[in-house]
Amino acid sequence: MAALIRRILRNLLATPLKKLDFIDVYRARSFFNNHPIIFGDPNRIKIGKGVHLYNSILNTNSGMIIIEDYATIKPNSMLITGTHDFSKKGMERRDAYPRNGRDIIIRKGAWIGPGAIILGKVTVGENAVVGAGSVVTKNVEAECVVAGNPARVINRLVSDGSEPTAS
Ligand SMILES: CC(C)(COP(=O)(O)OP(=O)(O)OC[C@H]1O[C@@H](n2cnc3c(N)ncnc32)[C@H](O)[C@@H]1OP(=O)(O)O)[C@@H](O)C(=O)NCCC(=O)NCCS
Question: Under a CB-based contact definition with an 8 Å cutoff, are residues 109 and 69 in contact?
């Protein structure tokens, strides 16, 4: 009984400490509302200042994830560097994934819509917009709006970045 109470108390104490560790790991002056789920090494994630990051999934098994200043990553999006070698089968395939080479870079001010999936290796350009539920498999130019599966350009910002052009 005493052991059970000790275990419950230990678990209760562990939760807030974990959250503090998370903020500390990133040393970010950013806003986290519901913590992202991280698969892979959290030290492969770099987050700039003023980033908004919600309950996304961040997979760093095959590369770095860099999110620059003022980017906003909306709920339920997934940034996935990992992949598997589909020429292999079964357990061998499960364990055959590259450790590097599939970085995801979200440039300054980019906006990743809710439920979007970003598959590395990909860079989303400065102030670009990725529509809700889109699947991004190629680089997104700066100041472009992309949407759909696979994501295609549906709009662009005008050169001063203030107003969208007609699509
Ligand atoms: C990407 C987005 C900003 C585009 O908005 P918009 O410029 O007003 O685009 P429109 O609604 O005029 O759509 C233009 C075309 O793109 C398509 N489209 C727009 N968003 C799309 C999306 N997410 N996926 C697929 N197609 C999309 C539209 O169907 C339309 O196609 P059509 O020309 O064949 O009719 C918006 O759709 C979006 O996804 N916003 C994200 C919402 C969000 O992050 N909210 C924050 C709270 S969490």
Answer: yes
pLDDT tens-place values along the chain, 167 residues long:
677 666 665 555 544 434 433 443 344 445 565 678 999 999 999 999 989 998 899 999 999 999 999 999 999 999 999 999 999 999 999 999 999 999 999 999 999 999 999 999 999 999 999 999 999 999 999 999 999 999 999 999 976 655 544 43
Does residue 35 carry a catalytic annotation?
A: no
Q: Is the CB of 154 inside a 6 Å radius of any atom of ligand 1?
A: yes
Q: CATH number of the domain at 101, please.
A: 2.160.10.10
Please enumerate in sequence order all residues whose Cβ is within 8 A of that of 142, keeping only pairs 6 or more positions apart, or say none.
107, 125, 126, 127, 128
25 belongs to a structural domain: no
**21 found inside a domain:** no
- pTM greater than 0.70: yes
Tell me how far the alpha carbon of residue 121 lies from the centroid of ligand 1, in angstroms.
Answer: 24
Given 35, 52, 84, 121, the catalytic residue: 84
